[in-house]
Amino acid sequence: MSQFAVELRDVVKRFPNPAGGEITAVNHATLQINHGEFFSLLGPSGCGKTTSLRMVAGFEWPTSGEIFIDGKPMGRTPPFLRPVNTVFQSYALFQHMTIFQNVAFGLEMERVSRQEIQRRVEAALEMVQLSGMGSRKPRQLSGGQQQRVALARALVKRPAVLLLDEPLGALDLKLRKEMQLELKALQEQVGITFIYVTHDQEEALTMSDRIAVMNQGNVLQIGAPVEIYERPNCRFVADFIGETNFLFGKVKAIDPDFVTVSLRGSERELLGIPLGKFHPGQEVVVSIRPEKMRLFDDTPLKLGVSPNQPNCFPIRIIHTMYIGSDTRIVIDFGSGVQLNVWEQNHLSTLDALAYYAPGQELWVTMRPENVLILPEEE
Amino acid sequence: MAAETSAITPTSRFSLIRRLRESSKAQGLALISPTLIYLLFTLVLPLLLVVFLSFMTRGAYGNIVYRVNLDNYTRLMDPLYLRILGYSLATAALTTVGTILIGYPLAYYIARTPPRQRSIYLFLILVPFWTNFIIRIYAWIMILRTEGLLNSFLLKIGFIQAPLEILYTPTAVLIGMVYEFLPFMVLPLYTSLEKIEPAQLEAAADLGARPHMAFLRVTLPLSLPGMIAGSILVFIPAMGMFVVPDLMGGAKTILVGNLIRNQFLTARDWPFGAAASMLLLILTLIFTLFYTRRAGFGEELLV
């Protein structure tokens, strides 16, 4: 067994553009996916994630670079000779075959004996909770059930790597959440490497061991869900994963742990942690997640707490929205900047004041660790 | 009383319109009534007439003697007529097979080209239909006859020493029939081939199927409805075809279509012609039902 289940080494894929010229779908992508890992390719549509997956499956060949599966260079190996199987977004079930025949198809191609086909297909259908459905046709099943058939059909081949192309995209939200948990449990049970393509950041965060965030053909960041969310390496990743507030400014001072940024069009200064290399005077973007700010009234100040601590500013409430678990507040940060703040309602009360009111004048504070300084993109 | 009647009359006059407005069944019937009336006069009544005629007898001067009997049907059991019937069945079946063999690769190719090219190819397939059918058959005669284009060409390149005798043989009839019915096979085949998502073939390859296996196990079965629809569209009219055998088969080739036409126009034996028509109708019905029983009536007919 080689070091990686799948490796993309400097892979480029260009397509001819119908309007002339070429489109670069994947731009010098390098990825290493470990054995048994649940790895997600995450990005907006057209970012190259599906093309990357199709190159691993063998439906497309790289323009340059090389793809290795279990250490073996794939070159132009056709799909039917690769040790990977795919779950398609449209499921691509064979409509003219029964569920049993669909799942058995891959084993028949391997010339597995009839008894073994019977045994393995039944086991696969049981694994996806479709025992007894074998004689039905795909059209007679619900979307979620078809999804499971597609999964069973790919897993019954015991692939080294399972490729999933937005497999839950066609399901409704509730079913999708259920299937997310089921898929993750299934992956842990069978121990097969999963490469999972999705544009749904929440889905990627919940299920993945590691995530590669892609945009416009480039792999921007690879890391565990926590790293991607808490320490994004660029503005796109911070914006695409979860919600955040952006502020703009210039680096004023740098000390070993923190960077001071003077905000554009304002006297205010923010202290935050640098994600990247900075020099004084450099234009930067500051990212602060809405759940990582605190609002408070001036009682502590009256009690003699100094307002001069970092990242503590007077603000005005513009708008509040009660959504049950949280209250979502839009605040006026001064000089025309508005910030979103989410506050968890950990106190059960009917007191309207607890949920703030527009026009209210308060203070906001944010710990320097929660203020992320990112390089401004050119 | 008078006041009461005048109050009721407008209501009853409008009740038909109101019923039409409220009942979707009545709306459907109203919409389809022109077609129904047309079919009643051009299909149902003539057919009943033919059924009626087939039980009558021919008079001495080609007139119809109204005496119910089964003589016409017993006469059809004569080996001479049975042979014509068998020959017609074989020709129609071979025509169907021929259109599948030529039409399948063509439809497959068109379905795989980019959408803009597809409409051009489909257009090209339909272009010959702008020319009169008889003229197209005469064009084939020009090609196939002894001093025709094909023979002159083959002689010139030295492929053959003496001209081939193709025209006025069963082969010529088959060539003409396959040519004539080809579009009826290509169009439904194209429709069903075009509907196969590329992902289906990718899934087959992904599951380990080499291209020929993917074709046999996925493409072919998925295009079966189109093939059945095409076969029905070719086989039924091919059974009754008489122009092609007349013009390209010479006097040697007689199909059941020619037989029927001769009874009506030459022999002036309408009752016997009617009986032959009934036999053709029933045979075609049996074969079509037999052919479609397994895979349904071919959804592609409904496209």
Give an overview in words.
The complex is a heterodimer of chains A (about 375) and B (about 300). By secondary structure, chain A is an alpha+beta fold. Chain A folds into two domains: about 5-240, P-loop containing nucleotide triphosphate hydrolases (Rossmann fold), CATH 3.40.50; about 245-375, OB fold (Dihydrolipoamide Acetyltransferase, E2P) (Beta Barrel), CATH 2.40.50.100. Chain A has helices at about 50-55, 100-110, 115-125, 145-155, 175-190, 200-205, 225-230, 235-240, 300, and strands spanning about 5-15, 20-35, 40, 65-70, 70-75, 85, 160-165, 195-200, 210-215, 220-225, 245-255, 260-265, 270-275, 285-290, 295, 310-320, 325-330, 340-345, 360-365, 370-375. In chain A, the strands form four sheets. In chain A, strands 6-7-8-3-9-10 form a six-stranded mixed sheet, with helices on both faces. The longest helix of chain A has 18 residues, at about 175-190. Chain B has two domains: about 15-55, no CATH class; about 70-300, MetI-like fold, CATH 1.10.3720.10. Mean pLDDT of chain B is about 85; it is low at about 1-10 and about 300-303. Chain B starts with a helix and ends in an 11-residue tail after the last helix. Chain B has helices spanning about 1-20, 25-55, 70-75, 80-110, 115-125, 135-145, 150-155, 170-195, 200-205, 210-240, 245-250, 255-265, 270-290; strands at about 55-60, 65. Chain B is an all-alpha fold and about 300 residues long. The chains are: A alpha+beta (about 375), B mainly alpha (about 300). The interface of A and B includes residues 88, 90 and 153 of A.
Sketch the topology of chain A as an H/E string, one letter per element: EEEHEEEHHHEHEHEEHHEEEEEHEEEEE
CATH topology term of the largest domain in chain B: MetI-like fold
| CATH topology call of the largest domain in chain A | Rossmann fold
- The CATH homologous superfamily name of the largest domain in chain B equals MetI-like
Number of domains of chain A: 2
Oligomeric grouping of the chains: heterodimer
- Counting DSSP E segments of at least 2 residues, the number of strands of chain B comes to 2
Give me the number of helical elements of chain A.
9
Low-confidence stretches of chain B: 1-8, 298-303
Shape of chain B: globular
Q: How many helices of chain B?
A: 13
The largest pleated sheet of chain A is described as:
6 strands, mixed
Radius of gyration of chain B from the CA trace? 26 Å
Largest interface by Cβ-Cβ < 8 Å: A-B, 23 and 18 residues
Strand neighbour order, sheet with most strands of chain A: 6-7-8-3-9-10
Going by CATH, the homologous superfamily of the largest domain in chain A would be P-loop containing nucleotide triphosphate hydrolases
